[in-house]
Amino acid sequence: MPRGVAIPEIRQQLFAAAERVTVRDGPGRLSGRAVTGEAGVATGLLYAHFADLDDFLAAYAVDRAFLVSAEAAALRDRAGRGSVAGNLCGAILSIPAPTVLASARLLVARPELTERVHAVLGDKTAGLEAIESAATTYLADEQRHDRVSRAADPAALALALVGVFHHLVLTEDSEAEVRTRTRRAIAGLVDPFTVASPRHDTAADRAGRPAPPA
């Protein structure tokens, strides 16, 4: 990058670079030089925007937690519409697997970052906590809509869903395989507790079904 040229959205460029370094090399290899080298910018640029590496990593953790929280917040609005498993898949798989992997590795390596995320965004916002919390609330809402069995435990189901996704992100090399196996697992966990409720069907749900006989 030529000296003196302004770089739009430099913070996001540096965050994306840190994510790639963490996924490829692990959090132990994170340094200001590694991040700026990956981003293709001058070494000192990181310190022009952040006090030090710890400040940068805290900002990264908060930024990614906010992204996850925003996706989680939209889940509750889907209660009563679409398919239960489909809604959960949509929320969970809207989070890029590299973001989940990098955040998980970083929070394990630097547990103090969890406290900094909580200080900014509140409790249950670090890593996938927001998705787990939102999924619990969503499933309870679907019980009130009579679309999920009263026998289901929303908190236990939400923990299982997030645990499956987290495990697959950590162990699968292919993002496509993560998505495929996550969908299959969510359907397997949720469908047995889903109650057919035609009055809640959407046009999208009905579109794939044959028309009733005249």
TrEMBL record:
Keywords from the named record: DNA-binding
Positions of the DNA-binding region: 31-50
Q: Where is the signal peptide?
A: none
Q: Does the keyword DNA-binding apply?
A: yes
Query: DNA-binding among the record's keywords?
Result: yes
Q: Name one GO molecular function term.
A: DNA binding
Residues covered by the HTH tetR-type domain: 8-68
Please, which domain of life does this record's source organism belong to? Answer: Bacteria
- Would you tell me the protein name for this molecule? TetR family transcriptional regulator
Taxonomic lineage of this organism?
A: Bacteria, Bacillati, Actinomycetota, Actinomycetes, Mycobacteriales
